[in-house]
Amino acid sequence: DIVEVDSQVIQLARKYFFLKETGRVRTYAEDGRVFLDRCAPGRYDLVYLDAFKSGSVPFHLKTRQFYQSIRRVMARGGVVVSNLYGLSNSLKPSDEKTFARVFPQLYFFEDPNRVATLLVATLAEQRQTRENLEQAAREFQPPGVLHLSMPKIIKTLLRKPPSATEGQVFEDDFRPGQDRETFEKNNRDDPTAVRPYPIKNIHSLAGKQGGNC
User: Fold this and answer.
1) How many CB atoms lie under 10 A from the CB of residue 212?
2) Per-residue model confidence as pLDDT tens digits over 130-156
3) Strands (E), the chain
4) pLDDT tens digits for range 99-142
5) 25-50 b/e (C-beta count within 10 Å ≥ 16 → b)
6) C-alpha distances out from residue 182 to 9, 94, 118, Å
7) Domain 32-193 top-level CATH class
8) Are 117 and 109 in contact (CB under 8 A)?
9) Is the dihedral of CA 17, 191, 33, 111 positive or negative?
10) 104 FRET partner, CA 20 to 30 A, in 21, 76, 126, 152?
11) Which segments of 18-168 are extended strands (E)?
């Protein structure tokens, strides 16, 4: 299931990125949190978060309450993967602290240039050692269409994650009936209207910054 708040993005994906809906690939044009609220418990083995607008993430998609909604729909042994952006995301300590309130095991992967940081969260009681992950990577046989080197990916696992002591837990406390209105406002607001930006869009023109969370 692919959830995208902007229906035009889905149309562009069909036109330019060969997106084809099937019985196993379905798209939904709505807010991700609204979608999760109506999902059955234990539905997904993998949840991937990549909800950006101008270099930022709508706040209601970064809170403990949102991550609890994800936990509810995860199957036993499920995994959450979240794109935390790159070097300029000053909110990573808070991202870690918020995720840690919901998921007991967190793993951080970052490319050498620190362009992107991926967080992998699980509900496992026991943490995987680096040696176990390296062994699993060597044994993994990717499908023919997946041209990835898992041993190379494991090398990007950070030995020391962002310092959660510097962050805070992101919380939201909506009154009954207030949540949908707030979600729509977060999705609609111009992220460039507030300064300074805790996340900078490194792909924008020199001197021009992206959005804020």
Assistant:
1) 21
2) 999 999 999 988 777 777 889 999 999
3) 2-3, 27-28, 44-49, 74-83, 105-110, 117-122
4) 999 999 999 999 888 888 999 999 999 999 999 999 999 998 87
5) eebeeebbbbbbeeeeeeebeebebe
6) 22, 21, 27
7) alpha beta
8) yes
9) positive
10) 152
11) 27-28, 44-49, 74-83, 105-110, 117-122
Count the Cβ atoms, other than its own, within 10 Å of residue 196. 8
Nearest in space to 121 (alpha carbons), one of 70, 170, 79: 79
Q: Which two tokens stand for residue 18?
A: 């060969």
d(CA 134, CA 156): 11
E strands of 111-175, at which residues? 117-122
Distances (CA, A) of 113 to 27, 77, 84: 33, 31, 14
Residue 125 token pair: 């009681």
DSSP class of 25: -
Task: Look up tokens 């952006």; give the residue.
Answer: 85
- Quick one: 70 exposed, middle or buried, by C-beta within 10 A (0-12, 13-18, 19+)? buried
Q: Is the pTM of this model over 0.85?
A: no
**How far is CA 104 from its chain centroid?**
17
Classify residue 156 as exposed, middle or buried by CB count within 10 Å of its CB (0-12, 13-18, 19+). Answer: middle
Where are the domains positioned within the chain? 1-30, 32-193
Q: Is the pLDDT of residue 180 over 90?
A: no
